[in-house]
Design goal:
By secondary structure, this protein is an alpha+beta fold. Helices cover 47% and strands 16% of the residues. Strand 1 (91-97) and strand 2 (100-107) form a beta hairpin. The strands form two sheets. It has a three-stranded antiparallel beta sheet with strand order 3-4-5, with no helix packed on it. A two-stranded antiparallel sheet has the order 1-2. 7% of the residues are buried. It is built from six helices and five strands; from the N terminus they run H-H-H-H-H-E-E-H-E-E-E.
Length: 166
Amino acid sequence: MSIKPSVTNLQQCRGKVASPAITARRKQIFLETLATCGVVRRAAEVSGTTRKSLYTYRTSDPDFAEAWDIALQDFADRLEEAAHSRAVDGYEEPVFQGGQQVGTVRKYSDSLLLAMLRARRPEYQSKPTVTVQAPPFTLPDMPQVYVDPSGNSFTLVDGQLRPAAS
């Protein structure tokens, strides 16, 4: 009678640590962290799971996959809010003189503002796409002359090379 090795035993034999089970609590922590930082690897570490086990679980549980997508959308919304704030509301940058901070100046991000405009308004796209329809162009029939290494000239007539007329 032989004992069938479990996946955990095989992983331990290969020097790998078995992935912990993805409990409801671990899923919740993963999804909350993903919505906050937007990085799967970091969210997996915080939740105490592995990326591989999370991706495997994602393919087998449509509700978890949907929650994952929503978490990433939430993160994208946070990025958009931050970009809007820096572009429209600006941010304080310290001003130094003689090694001492003497005040602040409000700065705005024109590049973020332009990027947001381009994303929402096609007329602000920097490289418009132009499609040109032109009639087909063909070269006029011209005799093709071929010269071999010996200097003999040939023309192509009806798909056949023939000595060129001198």
